[in-house]
Amino acid sequence: MCRWLAYSGSPLLLDAVLYRPEHSLISQSLHARMGVESTNGDGFGVGWYGVDDGDGTPAVFRDVGPAWNNRNLRELAAHVRSPLFFAHVRASTGSAVQQTNCHPFRHGRWLWMHNGAIADFPRLQRDLCMAVDPALFPSIEGSTDSEVMFYLAVTFGLDQDVPGAVARTAGLIEHLGKEHGIPDPLQMTIAVSDGHRVWAFRYSSQGRSRSLFYSSRAETVRHLHPELDFLREISDETRIVVSEPLGDLPGVWNELPEASYAVIPSGPDTDYFPFFPAFP
């Protein structure tokens, strides 16, 4: 499995989140506390949207080595400032360790990353790929279930309805899994963004999903920890979604409930909504 992080809010240098926290994502690449594997060294990636939005297409940097000793990643993180970025450290579930299998995946203005797996993916792969829009199929570069899920979501209307597209993707996987006699075919935590919003999903067929947490609202954290000077500089809309908390400060991290999704920026009334697969 893998560990990932999604940040949205006031522009800041990537290393403020990737390297500086007590239990940063770089630390998690070597010493994860909540993952299936403690080491996530089968590649990494970062994707970010510029402060000047330009054409809205995000930049992506991926490599096959471990994140903890990559000098290029440290250099980039110390100089790139972004209001919205993804970062992912990979532990392969069987697919090859190669750059095209590293997250996040990009298509147009969209970024996508995943922790989890489709059970017995080789048995379902052909049927799932046949459901991808033929015009999109040539864009699939790697061999992971995660990338196929991404292009299924694009096929099922990611541009119009993100939760609906992900629900239809999950529903197809569940449906095909049952047809092939696979009792619990899907395990997923997913982040997806169009450069303006982030959607984060937590779901599994078994009802025992991998860990996923989101940060409390900025005003709440300011009230709880007035000694943290950097909180004065971030907007009220700033939030982080992580596979594991980046530290142990009380009141900062909240577990996203099973079978739910969050949207950032969030609305005034709720931080998350229920998530259910939509079966074909």
Automatic annotation (TrEMBL):
Keywords per UniProt: Glutamine amidotransferase
All residue ranges annotated as the Glutamine amidotransferase type-2 domain in the record: 2-280
Origin: domain of life: Bacteria
Pfam families linked: GATase_4 (PF13230)
Listed CDD domains: YafJ
Family annotation (InterPro entries): EgtC-like, Gamma-glu_amide_hydrolase, GATase_2_dom, Ntn_hydrolases_N
Listed name of the protein: Class II glutamine amidotransferase
Organism in which the protein naturally occurs: Streptomyces zaomyceticus
Lineage, highest ranks first: Bacteria, Bacillati, Actinomycetota, Actinomycetes, Kitasatosporales
